């Protein structure tokens, strides 16, 4: 495909405007600003740069890369009260309804920037109900989803939805999206550089969500814990879990839960594990492709992930990662690779090389803008 990203209007050429709207975990935002209180008073751009540097959800952030292709860009973290209120101040604006501040500020941002391309990477909070309130209609609107889709979601004003899960793409068409595209996250190489000196602290690590939407994952974590305290074959564990409903996991796991880690701290936690385990959300229905594939291999850690038929699409089992098909195989491979350091580290190295070669954000962003923007705009 051509890589000319200018709209021709007679003798004039206008730069395309690209806007991305995302949301972060509220607890992460609270933690970050608590650690960096002066950030609350920083400019809008400096706050956004600080958020990007910390690495939370950065594998979904395409605005920095779209700038490199000549786009004018704006990244909005819609539920961040600090950066959003700063944007209002810098633009001499106010809102009418404090109880609806998130949607009201984002509406003003869209109508002020007037983007040609609007990417709603939180396509649930910002679905067609939001789009219909806008006085400005972007030429291209698309979104991302890789998790459950609430029944009230409306995507009838979306040109297409991106997802690595076929179940999400199928549902997107049912609720109005004009098209769908298979897509999956990338990895920012600078994250690996930031955590390269992190020593190994635990034999097995898991960092992520546990919930009623992750029943198989919950079972795997329980099995890992039970095996880890076996007197004859003990191994150390580091669980990094946000608060979860009682009963989802073995109660003794709390003693080994170091709490949620986000951003660079999450990448350090992954790097600190000799083995990192992974399992998809139940919704995936036998498909691989979640963020942890790229986060783990990206930092050079050894990934032991649940086997799915399409895992070869991303990494080669036994060569770049390792897989398991059931709980017993998972535990057998944990014991095996803890005894075989050289083989484990060799696989981790090849997985790291594959991730940086094929799944870097630089490469993903080129595909992102050339495959989608041009096809749908020109």
Describe the protein's architecture and organization:
The protein has 378 residues and is α/β, with parallel strands linked by helices. The protein folds into 2 domains: 6-185 and 361-377, Rossmann fold, CATH 3.40.50; 189-358, 3-Layer(aba) Sandwich (Rossmann fold), CATH 3.40.50.2000. Helices cover 39% and strands 16% of the residues. It has 14 helices and 13 strands. Strands 4-3-5-6-7-8 form a 6-stranded parallel beta sheet, sandwiched between helices. A 5-stranded parallel beta sheet has the order 10-9-11-12-13, sandwiched between helices. Strands 1-2 form a two-stranded antiparallel ribbon. α7 (166-174) links the parallel β7 (160-163) and β8 (180-182). α11 crosses α13 (341-358). The termini are close together.
Short description:
This is Spore protein YkvP/CgeB glycosyl transferase-like domain-containing protein. 39% of the residues lie in helices and 16% in strands.
Topology:
Layout: E1 6-9, E2 12-15, E3 17-22, H1 26-35, H2 44-54, H3 63-68, E4 72-77, H4 81-90, H5 101-113, E5 117-120, H6 128-131, E6 140-144, E7 160-163, H7 166-174, E8 180-182, H8 189-194, E9 202-207, H9 215-228, E10 237-240, H10 263-271, E11 273-278, H11 291-298, E12 303-306, E13 322-324, H12 327-339, H13 341-358, H14 361-377
Parallel strand pairs: 3-4, 3-5, 5-6, 6-7, 7-8, 9-10, 9-11, 11-12, 12-13
Antiparallel strand pairs: 1-2
Helix pairs in contact: 2-4, 11-13
Pfam families: Glyco_trans_1_2
Organism: Candidatus Magnetoglobus multicellularis str. Araruama
Protein name: Spore protein YkvP/CgeB glycosyl transferase-like domain-containing protein
């Amino acid at each position: 495909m051509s890589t000319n990203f200018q709209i021709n209007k007679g003798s004039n050429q206008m730069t395309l405007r690209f806007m991305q709207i995302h949301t972060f975990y509220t607890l992460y935002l609270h933690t970050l600003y608590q650690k960096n209180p002066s950030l609350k008073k920083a400019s809008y751009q400096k706050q956004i740069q600080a958020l990007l540097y910390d690495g939370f959800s950065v594998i979904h952030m395409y605005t920095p890369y779209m700038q490199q292709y000549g786009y004018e860009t704006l990244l909005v973290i819609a539920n961040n009260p600090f950066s959003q209120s700063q944007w209002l101040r810098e633009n001499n604006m106010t809102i009418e309804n404090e109880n609806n501040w998130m949607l009201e500020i984002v509406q003003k941002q869209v109508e002020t920037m007037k983007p040609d391309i609007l990417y709603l990477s939180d396509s649930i909070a910002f679905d067609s109900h939001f789009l219909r309130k806008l006085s400005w209609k972007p030429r291209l609107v698309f979104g991302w989803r890789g998790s459950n889709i609430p029944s009230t979601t409306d995507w009838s004003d979306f040109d297409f939805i991106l997802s690595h899960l076929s179940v999400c793409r199928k549902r997107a068409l049912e609720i109005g999206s004009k098209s769908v595209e298979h897509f999956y996250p990338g990895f920012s190489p600078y994250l690996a550089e930031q955590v390269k000196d992190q020593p190994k602290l635990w034999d097995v690590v898991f960092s992520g969500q546990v919930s009623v939407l992750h029943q198989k994952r919950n079972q795997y974590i329980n099995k890992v814990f039970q095996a880890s305290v076996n007197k004859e074959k003990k191994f150390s564990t580091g669980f990094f879990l946000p608060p979860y409903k009682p009963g989802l996991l073995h109660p003794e796991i709390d003693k080994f839960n170091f709490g949620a880690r986000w951003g660079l701290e999450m990448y350090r936690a992954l790097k600190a594990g000799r083995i990192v385990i992974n399992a998809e959300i139940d919704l995936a229905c036998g498909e691989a492709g979640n963020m942890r594939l790229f986060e783990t291999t990206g930092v050079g850690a050894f990934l032991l992930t649940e086997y799915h038929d399409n895992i070869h699409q991303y990494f080669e089992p036994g060569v770049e990662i390792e897989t398991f098909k059931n709980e017993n195989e998972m535990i057998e491979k944990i014991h095996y690779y803890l005894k075989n350091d050289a083989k484990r580290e060799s696989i981790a190295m090849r997985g790291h090389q594959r991730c940086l070669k094929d799944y870097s954000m630089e490469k993903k962003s080129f595909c992102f803008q050339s495959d989608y923007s041009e096809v749908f705009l020109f």
